[in-house]
Amino acid sequence: MSNGGATHYLTAPLRWLARAADVPLRAWQRMTGQGGMIALFLLPNMAIFSIFVLIPLGMNALYSTTGGVEFFLADRPYVGGEHYARLMDCENYLEPRSCRDDMFWIAVWNTARFVIFQVGVMTLVAMITALILNRAIPAKAFWRAVFFFPVLLSPVVVGLIWRWILQRQGLANLAMFEMGLEPVNWLTDRFWAFFAAVGVSVWAHMGFYTLILLAGLQAIPRDLYEAAEMDGTPPFRVFYRITLPLLMPNLLVVLVLALIRAVQIFDEAYVLTGGGPGTSTMFMTQYIYESGFANLLRNPGLAAAASILMALVLVVLTLCQLWLSRRAGGDR
Amino acid sequence: MRWLVAKRGRTGDGRGWHWTDIATWVWLIGGTILMFGPAVWLVLSSFKTPAALAEFPPTLLPFAQQTVEVEGEQKPLYTVTLADGTVRTMAELRRVGIVAQMVDPDDPGAEPARVNIADRDPVREVDFATENYTEPFMRFDFFLFLRNSVFVTVMATIITLLTNSMAAFALSKYEFRGRNAVMLLIIATLMVPLSVILVPLYSVVAATGLMNNLWGVILPTVATPTGVFLLRQYMLTIPDELLDAARMDHASEWQIYWRIVLPLAAPALAVLAIFSVVWRWNDFLWPLVVLSRKELYTLQIGLNTYAGELNVQWHYILAMTVVAMIPVVLVFVFLQRFITAGIAGTGLK
């Protein structure tokens, strides 16, 4: 964003517009004073924000309590809590087949399993990587970039790269072949497809969490370690007594952010497996998308009710984060 | 405890390698292979012909079989082990079952030799199948998809920067009633994911007539709370005295925003611009919902659609995946430090 070079010429029309806009805006300022200008500065963003975030947020409740396949609210009859009752109608919540909307509960339990595995594995891997990147290694910036690289890739690109590698005759099975093992149907076997989704998701996102943990590690004062070294404290003790407690605020942020994002898992998994084989990688967001739009028997009200239930989980997680970060912040 | 924070090179004090040094390098090198490997494999595969892609085990580099002209036609070349044990390079005229009729390309008039196909190997050399890249643009709609993606990304980023910075300016440089309420509202929605408002957002966009319109993809994404938050935090650090001095010189409020605050907030704007480009280029779920006409697909949606077809044409898909990766790789190579600084500082993504 320097003043010279290409940016200068690219932004020339914008600057010209801004200069032209000053004439009417100056008149507006004379008429309405500073208050009018504040309103004007806030208007574009807040208008777009209201129309596309706040109003839909409020409308969701209306959708979840009305029925039919129409999207226009006036055409939708009021049905009260029917959608919620349908979603929660279950003989045994642990057994999706005993539920009226078995798909919903399949998605719920798949998502729960996914969250546990993905967040667990990812936090562990990110932690180890951050500890290693915090050591005195040459070309630190390069190694940090290596682990960060997949974070920027689009979910479609991530999904397709791994579909190509995990396909029947792909690189993964070549590796199995070289090791003298039987090839595996990574994406068409119910068991492996789920773990493929977990692994690919860890691959794509761990770099982001590594950066947050690394920032935390770098903020730990070096003299603490030097003091511990003088006392001859064994290394594992140092880790538990110095590194871990001081890293706790960052670790909590990582855990909660990862949880919130894992609950919303959709795109990579959708491109990778399309929810299959069967329903083994069908997650909450895909359930909402499909029951609201994609299915022949679409039911926007049901999708809205499911999304509100998911929002409740996210709100609880967000509140946990606020509470934890405040507590962690207060400790310092 | 040097294994936790080594201060000078390797951890040992001239005592040679500690096991943690070895573990570190195994992790780093293994990590590099695992992180870069898949993308490198994608790029190498994207230059292979369909025949080479179907091979197992696959080769690392893209190879293509050599051909030679025999009597006006291109015929594939093979290294053949003949019945008498001699090894020659011959062209295949035709093949019936497991027997091929082969002829020496230098002596096409001779009687063709009958060769079992198990006794020959194709003659190959490294050859980049660049038609994987050109054909999707010429024969399929990928040029349109690319154009749509560029349009969405550029427009959304410009509007994001403009509206977010105006709001951030108002929220950081003026005292007014309700300011805290607005800030609270913005922070509260930081965590509202798209999937939670998917159904009502769809109907709002349908009601505004933006269905199957690229603006329907752009507008809902531009008022990012993250952007407002990031820019506001930065603008708070700009001293108010600068603004007061400008007012003394009869600058209008708009000029103060445009001529003073925006240039000073350039570092934060750069971070937001980079993030916005990456976000919008990579967007998937929302365009998938809004766009159902093929000529409006973005690159991501187009790729997913073609990759979801029954008969996946992997040679095109892989090449187009590489194209979809290019802008992000450029950002990564040239602007990575802005991003890492942004994440470490704000936890933004």
- SSE ordering of chain B: HHEEEEEEEEHHHHHHHHHHHH
Q: What pair of chains forms the biggest interface?
A: A-B, 108 and 107 residues
Q: Main beta sheet of chain A, described?
A: none
As a percent range, the share of strand residues of chain B is 5-15%
Based on the structure given, which CATH architecture of the largest domain in chain A is correct?
A: Orthogonal Bundle
The CATH topology assignment of the largest domain in chain B is MetI-like fold
Low-pLDDT stretches of chain A are: none
Gap from first CA to last CA of chain B? 33 Å
Q: How many discrete domains of chain B? A: 2
Amount of beta strand of chain A: under 5%
Q: CATH class of the largest domain in chain B, please?
A: Mainly Alpha
Residue stretches of chain B low in confidence (pLDDT < 50, at least 5 long) are 6-12
Query: What is the CA-CA span between the terminal residues of chain A?
Result: 37 Å
Percent range of helical residues of chain B: 55-70%
Please provide a written account of the structure.
The complex is a heterodimer of chains A (332) and B (349). With 332 residues, chain A is an all-alpha fold. Chain A folds into 2 domains: 13-64, no CATH class; 102-331, MetI-like (MetI-like fold). Chain A has helices at residues 5-10, 12-64, 82-88, 102-133, 140-152, 155-166, 171-178, 190-218, 222-230, 235-263, 267-273, 284-294, 300-331. In chain A, helix 8 (190-218) packs antiparallel against helix 11. The longest helix of chain A is centred in the N-terminal third of the chain and has 53 residues, at 12-64. Chain A is globular. The longest helix of chain B has 33 residues, at 314-346. In chain B, the strands form 2 sheets. In chain B, strands 2, 3, 4, 5, 6 and 7 form a 6-stranded antiparallel β-sheet that branches. In chain B, strands 1-8 form a two-stranded antiparallel ribbon. Chain B has helices spanning 19-45, 50-53, 131-139, 142-173, 179-188, 198-207, 214-222, 225-235, 240-248, 253-264, 266-282, 285-290, 299-307, 314-346, and strands at 63-65, 67-70, 73-81, 87-96, 99-103, 113-116, 120-122, 124-126. Chain B starts with 18 loop residues before the first helix and ends with a helix. Chain B has 14 helices and 8 strands. In chain B, helix 4 (142-173) packs parallel to helix 7 (214-222). The radius of gyration of chain B is 30 Å and the shape is elongated. In chain B, strand 4 and strand 5 form a beta hairpin. The interface between A and B is large, with 108 and 107 residues.
